[in-house]
Design goal:
Blueprint: E1 13-15, H1 25-33, E2 38-41, H2 45-54, H3 58-65, H4 70-80, H5 104-128, E3 136-141, H6 148-157, E4 162-166, H7 173-181, E5 186-189, E6 202-205, H8 207-210, E7 223-228, H9 231-238, E8 247-251, H10 282-287, E9 292-295, H11 301-309, E10 314-317, H12 319-322, H13 331-343, E11 347-351, E12 361-364, H14 373-378, E13 390-395, E14 398-402, H15 408-413, H16 427-434, H17 458-463, H18 472-480, E15 504-506
Parallel strand pairs: 1-10, 2-3, 3-4, 4-7, 7-8, 8-9, 9-10, 11-15
Antiparallel strand pairs: 5-6, 11-12, 13-14
Helix pairs in contact: 1-5, 2-5, 3-5, 5-6, 6-7
């Protein structure tokens, strides 16, 4: 069973695996060609490819046609590919992910989803790796656990080099990768609210039940980088061989997307404030003995130099790549953000209530998006994608699935409290819209987007002072000017100077 590059051989610049299809195969391929670690987002890839295929996307189809089990590929294409597109009709959504299917229909839906997830991840990684020999990674969110085994298996069939995982403890991922690499059945723990007794719920994936390719030679096992925000989690993961990653990405509170809650006092329905307690001790991370990269306001030459001085291999950057020409962000949304950055009107809010997960969430304040209270208030609540749904034990082994962003009466009927729904945003639909794949509703309503970039935008302003855009290759060249010399580790992470010149943070 082969291995990929050692962590010491991985590039100093990692492109973040952002959002739903923002870190697309095109972006990852461009970054890898330019000398960085290109990363595709594994979040919602099944739904992304279902929509790309319904749009008649030939690239998505060709990627799936390269899957080694052609019968399986043909089944997926038969369900979703529309050569002429949708003709303005709403997208057909895949079934929602569940655990412990009880009926024949539920089992058939889960099998359909697993097939879609496997071939979508295979296609995305295959397309990202086309035409070069640079490293490609895939990023998954531990809090969206049900699709992870099938998604990672598809990525491994395509030869993915690195798996990155955060948004929760990724302690099970090393063993999951071990089992998938030899085509063995894999299980991943899923938290179930109000579960009783000693019952432990898992999402299970058996490659041999899916395809004959599981009878082939062992797959190359990718390296695993755990995304962490504390020394305690990093040290705990390294404590045993079963949970030890190959390295870390250490994210600070200025990073985009979901953030760890602040270590000081915080009420979930207010905007969190971060202070020195939320800075990770880089010397303590270095003492663990595994390579690490720093993220959160490090996407600049001085950020790379600062990371190197603290003993890091390099940095992970997100926002500067999310706004590059090659990202999957919808072009009109990207242009709006670049104009706002150029004229200085951009504001970034760390919102403590928007995300259904309950974690703080970075939101750029933009007209026409769900950050606008008028747009948010006009949206009819619905939950038709369901990636962030939480299983709840109703009693007697029956599971319900609930989300604070779903219609309030439905949420309350499942045991939720009305105040938990306040200001929640349907991130599933909003992030698909941000990637240019919004659902179209009857009556002409189109789901609005949300943009969740990081707080540090100085690199973007440098590369696009007039708002006219730049390439991911430009971003790599700009950040790379800060390498490659490494200095001695400091006692704690001190943010680079660029972090002191951020857009207004709304508290």
């Amino acid at each position: 069973m082969g291995q990929t590059r050692s962590p010491e051989q991985l590039p100093p610049i990692i492109q973040g695996g952002m959002g739903v299809y923002v870190s697309s195969q095109r972006l990852a391929r461009t970054v890898a060609r330019a000398g960085g670690l290109g990363v595709v987002s594994g979040t919602g890839l099944d739904g992304v490819y279902a929509r790309l295929l319904q749009n008649g996307d030939r690239g998505a189809r060709r990627g799936i046609e390269q899957f080694p089990d052609q019968e399986l590929a043909d089944r997926v294409l038969g369900r979703y590919f529309r050569p002429a597109g949708r003709a303005g009709k709403p997208y057909r959504n895949p079934p929602k992910w569940i655990i412990d299917p009880a009926s024949d229909r539920q089992r058939a839906n889960l099998a359909e989803l697993q097939e879609l997830a496997v071939v979508s991840a295979f296609a995305e990684v295959t397309r990202a790796k086309h035409g070069h020999d640079g490293p490609i990674g895939i990023n998954v969110l531990r809090k969206i656990g049900m699709p992870i085994p099938a998604t990672l298996y598809g990525a491994m069939l395509a030869g993915v080099d690195v798996v990155l995982a955060g948004a929760g403890s990724p302690s099970e991922l090393p063993q999951l990768l071990d089992r998938l690499s030899v085509h063995e059945e894999a299980a991943l723990y899923v938290k179930v609210l109000r579960a009783t007794g000693d019952v432990e719920h898992t999402t299970r994936f058996a490659p041999a039940q899916l395809s004959a390719v599981a009878c082939g030679a062992p797959l190359r096992r990718p390296r695993f980088l755990a995304i962490v925000a504390s020394v305690d989690l990093a040290a705990g993961l390294a404590a045993t061989p079963a949970t030890r990653p190959d390295g870390y990405v250490v994210e600070g509170p200025t990073a985009g997307g979901h953030n760890a809650p602040p270590r000081g006092p915080w009420r979930p329905q207010t905007d969190p404030s971060y202070d020195a307690r939320d800075q990770v001790d880089s010397a303590a991370i270095a003492a663990i003995g595994l390579p690490f990269w720093l993220a959160g306001s490090y996407g600049s030459p001085e950020g790379l130099r600062a990371a190197r001085r603290q003993g890091a291999r390099g940095i992970q950057a997100g926002t500067v790549f999310a706004l590059s020409r090659e990202s999957g962000l919808a072009p009109e949304l990207k242009a709006q953000i670049l104009r706002a950055l150029a004229d200085g009107s951009i504001r970034v809010r760390t919102d403590g209530s928007a995300s259904p997960t309950g974690f703080p969430f970075k939101v750029h304040q933009l007209d026409g998006t769900l950050s606008d209270p008028v747009i948010h208030g006009a949206r009819e609540r619905r939950c038709d994608l369901g990636y962030l749904r939480q299983p709840v034990d109703r009693g007697g082994g029956e599971l319900l699935y609930t989300c604070p962003a779903e219609p309030e009466p439905i949420f309350k009927s499942k045991g939720g409290r009305g105040q938990q729904t306040d200001a929640r945003v349907c991130l599933c639909n909003a992030l698909f819209a941000a990637a240019g794949l919004p659902q179209h509703r009857p009556g002409g309503y189109v789901e609005p987007a949300i943009f969740t970039g990081g707080a540090d935008v100085e690199a973007v302003r440098h590369l696009s002072p007039d708002g006219d855009g730049y390439s991911a290759t430009d971003a790599i060249s700009f950040i790379g000017a800060g390498g490659p010399a490494a200095g001695s580790a400091a006692t704690a992470i001190t943010q680079p100077a660029s972090a002191r010149h951020q857009p207004a943070i709304v508290r």
